[in-house]
Each structure stands twice: as structure tokens, then as C-alpha cells.
Specification:
single chain; 232 residues; alpha/beta; 6-stranded parallel sheet; two-stranded antiparallel ribbon; 38% helix; 15% strand; globular
Length: 232
């Protein structure tokens, strides 16, 4: 069986409610990693996600590369987003049960990596249960012990916004690659994944229903989506 947990970065946007409705149609609960500034701009859209069963996690306040920040600046980014998300859940009348975190760009902070991981542990951020991930490189890179949420397969659909040669067919080919340059093959025998999509209205303009197109195809290929689970 091929299984996957779906994560979605850069929430929220004007596209968020339609994306949430689609996921609920398919019975998929996703972790939506939100930047504080996007939530402030599209507050009702973020609230829609919370009220309709998605888990909204921390993706920093303004999406910087953490290796370019001091430790204090990195912590400030996390805490500023936390304040926004705490207020969001409170205003939406939903208990905030889980607090997962994902670094923008997967940039774990360079020389500050260990200190940032310790901070996440001390503040009791929730680690996504990744015990189903079987790939050797996952453990070799310490991803099994890091608190933040990384991924095994990135659709990279955001690249369509600035790369004319990167099209739907490019993503289709990536989905069917047997030996991808990074991450693990999406399809095959007993593949286990943490998938990464992005909530970008700009991508929706370029390829309407992009998330529906790719997720529906994954379902057709036999991928089963898992309910998020956490360890602390």
C-alpha cells in the first residue's frame, strides 16, 4: 500500500476555502503551514480552514530563509507567527490542539539549526509522526529526530509562476519519476510519503484546479491519504 500525509505550505490565500472544500470532498485532512503575514491578509480564509477541519501550523511570520537570520531573529519569526495563530484559533472558536512547524524552503537555520531544534523542543511544538517513512536518507539526515516537518515529495507546482518551461507536464513527469533527483518516488511498491503542495492563488490562475488535478491523479494511482498524527 502507498500512503501519504498531505501538507500544504504558504496558507492562507483567497484560494484557501476552495482548496479546503476539495480536500473535505475527498476525505483528506491536511496540515496547512501558514505564514503569519498571509493569515493577517486573508484572515477569514484561514479561519475557514480551521473551522473546516484542517490543522494550521506555523511556517514563520514572513517566510525568510532562516540561515540568513540570527538565532534571535529566527525565534522572533516563529513567535510572531504563533501569536497570529493563537489569535486565529481563538477568534474561530476552535481549540488549537497541535502546533507543528515547518521552516520556509526547508532551511533549518544553518549554524543555528541545533539551537532552533532545541527551542522547538522546549516550547513543545508537535512533531509529525514520521515513523512510517522508510527511506535511509530520512534517517541519515536526522529528519526522523528533527522537530520540524520536512517532506519526502514536493510537487514544486509553484515553479510554474516563474519558469515558463516548467509546466503541468513537468509535474506529471516528476510524479511518475522512478528515480527522482531528490526525495523518493511518488508511486511504486509500498511508498510512504509526506507530500508538499502550496496554496498559491497565482498557480491557480495559471492552472485552474491544480491541486485537484494532482491529488485526484495520486488517488487514481492508488495513493491512500493518512490522517495527521503527532508525537511530542
Amino acid at each position: 500500500m502507498n500512503r501519504a500525509l498531505l501538507t500544504i505550505d504558504d496558507v492562507s490565500s483567497r484560494n484557501t476555502p476552495a482548496l479546503v472544500d476539495y480536500l473535505n470532498e475527498r476525505g483528506i485532512q491536511a496540515i496547512m503551514f501558514a505564514t503569519g503575514n498571509h493569515v493577517e491578509r486573508f484572515y477569514e480564509e484561514a479561519c475557514y480552514a480551521v473551522k473546516h477541519g484542517m490543522i494550521v501550523g506555523n511556517h514563520s511570520y514572513s517566510h525568510p530563509a532562516f540561515s540568513a537570520l540570527t538565532l534571535e531573529e529566527g525565534i522572533g519569526q516563529i513567535e510572531q507567527c504563533e501569536a497570529v495563530l493563537d489569535r486565529l484559533y481563538r477568534d474561530c472558536g476552535v481549540e488549537r490542539q497541535y502546533r507543528p512547524f515547518r521552516f520556509p524552503y526547508g532551511d533549518k537555520g544553518g549554524k543555528n539549526k541545533d539551537a532552533l531544534q532545541q527551542y522547538l523542543r522546549e516550547k513543545q511544538f508537535d512533531k509529525v509522526d514520521d515513523s512510517h517513512i522508510p527511506y535511509a536518507w530520512w534517517k541519515e539526515n536526522g529528519l526522523n529526530t528533527d522537530v520540524d516537518t520536512f517532506w519526502t515529495f514536493d510537487f514544486e507546482e509553484y515553479r510554474m509562476q516563474g519558469e515558463p518551461d516548467f509546466t503541468r507536464d513537468s509535474i506529471w513527469a516528476k510524479m511518475h519519476a522512478v528515480n527522482p533527483k531528490s526525495g523518493a518516488a511518488l508511486f511504486g511498491e509500498n511508498q510512504q510519503h509526506i507530500l508538499l503542495l502550496h496554496d498559491h492563488a497565482e498557480t491557480e490562475q495559471l492552472l485552474p484546479g491544480y491541486y485537484r488535478l494532482f491529488i485526484d491523479h495520486a488517488l487514481e494511482e492508488g495513493l491512500t491519504f493518512m490522517k495527521p498524527a503527532f508525537i511530542r
